[in-house]
Amino acid sequence: MTTDSTQHAHLRDESTTPGLPVSPSLGSSLDAARMPRRSTLVEPRVLWICGLAMLLGVAAALIARVLVMLIALVTNLAFYGRWSLHEVSPADHQLGPWVVLVPVLGGLVVGLMARWGSRAIRGHGIPEAMEQVLLNESKILPRITFLKPLSSAVAIGTGGPFGAEGPIIATGGALGSFLGQVLHVTGQERKVLLAAGAAGGMTAIFGAPLAAVVLAVELLLFELRPRSLIPVALATVAAAGIRDALVGGGPVFAMPPLVEPGMAALVAYVVLGALIGLASVGATRIVYGIEDAFEKLPIHWMWWPAIGGIAVGVVGWFAPLTLGVGYTNIEDIVSGRLAVGALAFLCAMKFLSWSIALGSGTSGGTLAPLFTIGGALGALAGFGLVAVAPQLGVDPRIAGLVGMAAIFAGASRALLTSVVFAFETTRQAHGLLPLLGGCTAAYLVSALTMRNTIMSEKIARRGVRVPTEYAADYLEQVAVGEACSRDVVSLRTSDALGDVRALINSGRAEYRHQGFPVVDDSGRVRGVVTRRVLLDPAHPGLRRIGELGLRPPVVVHEHHSLREAADHMVAEDIGRLIVVGADAPHPLLGILTRGDLLAAHGRRLKEAHQAARHLRFGRDQAAP
């Protein structure tokens, strides 16, 4: 089988078309018409992908645990000079000014790993995974599977102000991609495996399976279809089960019980979310501005993480709480255990350390730093409102929770991920409504003021177009019968070629088509003949149309959707389809061309851009 025919068969298998049935009454040639196979919402093969996804969820959870232990090991060695896997905070070190050297050495190691291992380990991992999904059929280099966690363990363990979630998302995604490259799967299935591994990794770190599924949809899959959603969801369930067995359940950021907010407080949280949205835009621009500044340095990029480590070390000397993942900082913020001065200092120093380190191209996640910065900003605003307007009933803890989620919603524009994540990691139901309002306001501000996000800016600069909307396919909503050309001239098998040529050369509009359906004397469709064949001088004028070697008819019924028809065109590598009636004896109704598919978008554009008033109020001017 040729390559083209293989691709066409693949397209027929993967098409959304459920099959184009043709009645035997149309004749033997129409019985042989090439049609895509009948498909269902999901194919049985999805069971195989689900099994692989669950294995990936288990593997990602185990790798996440290994990464946490590696970070603990490096932290103990770098700050305390001991060999231990016990999780400790670098903030309690006794190194004094020598602490400045620790992040510098860590940055140097990361730079060497990136130079001689893979440059893809630089950054927080999600943009790189997005790029592979969009451009490279989800094919990630296998060595990323072990280089990313190792480099992140070194960067974070030596004081890098990052979280472990970004690296494990990248690692889980790389593992899923590797499995998809070893096994015989399609590019679509490989993308699902990548997303399943990434979602499993996030679940294992934060115990937030639902948020992990939504993150996979918003930042990796760029779709919401059963054949991708089901495996990813099962992967997170498997990862959550392993996590509970290894480290137990419960919220990651425990909070005291909250009181349901009133209307005035809800309005305040929405306004707070909008302000945090502005902060997220500013943070994104500053990070990429710092990255641009590093690009101008007259030294190789391998040394940049070490230079960024200088800033991390100096800030860590004055503000030890900025060192490392800092998950306890987030819990202290949303629990209201930090005073106003401590919040302001932590917010400023964490942002300074994180933005310079991330801009230098070292390895680490962005979620935890953003949560710390946004949570501190929100809590500060909450304390301020309590002082100046106590009648609003604002709770600084809820304000911190809203700030934590809203800054991520604004920076990444992963709105639902932000809301669900904040809920799952705190298990505070009374925080859901403030979260929804605050995150939506931040999302709105970000969408109005910033074209790309902290996740997409880097790859957008390399020419990658990242989907930002997941709209229903308009072609699925239009039936073929509404869009096809019905005034189509059909030729008969008994027509003389010379007579047909005379009609074509007459210039009449109905004979300007590039292809014509051919029917026999009984009106049954026999095939299609192109204008090029009809005008070929090698065929004598006395020859009959039925003797020209007609193309087998490729048929679509009038009730099928334009999406089904478009898939059929691609699968068969043709530009037109014969349209027949749905009811026996399936009469010929017309032809559907590529131009008809494009013209069908006219109504969509009208609905999107043409504003008009249709309902008018006032007295009826008609005569009684």
Kindly describe this structure.
With 624 residues, this protein is mainly α. The chain folds into 3 domains: 44-247, Clc chloride channel (Orthogonal Bundle); 263-462, Clc chloride channel (Orthogonal Bundle); 474-609, CBS-domain (Roll), CATH 3.10.580. Helix content is 57%, strand content 4%. It has 25 helices and 6 strands. The strands form 2 sheets. Strands 1-2-3 form a 3-stranded mixed β-sheet. It has a 3-stranded mixed β-sheet with strand order 4-5-6. Helix 21 (497-505) links the parallel strand 1 and strand 2 (515-519). The radius of gyration is 31 Å and the shape is elongated. The model is unreliable at 1-39 (pLDDT under 50). One of its GO terms (molecular function) is chloride channel activity. Residues 484-545, 549-607 form the CBS domain. Residues 1-29 are annotated as: Disordered.
The gist of it:
The protein is mainly alpha-helical. The chain has helices at residues 3-14, 28-31, 46-80, 101-116, 126-135, 144-157, 165-182, 187-206, 209-221, 226-247, 263-295, 304-318, 327-334, 340-359, 367-388, 396-412, 415-426, 432-449, 457-460, 480-483, 497-505, 531-534, 562-572, 594-599, 601-609, and strands spanning 491-492, 515-519, 525-530, 555-557, 576-580, 588-593. It has three domains: 44-247, Orthogonal Bundle (Clc chloride channel), CATH 1.10.3080.10; 263-462, Clc chloride channel (Orthogonal Bundle); 474-609, CBS-domain, CATH 3.10.580.
Tag the structure with descriptive keywords.
624 residues; mainly alpha; Clc chloride channel; CBS-domain; 3 domains; three-stranded mixed sheet; 57% helix; disordered N terminus
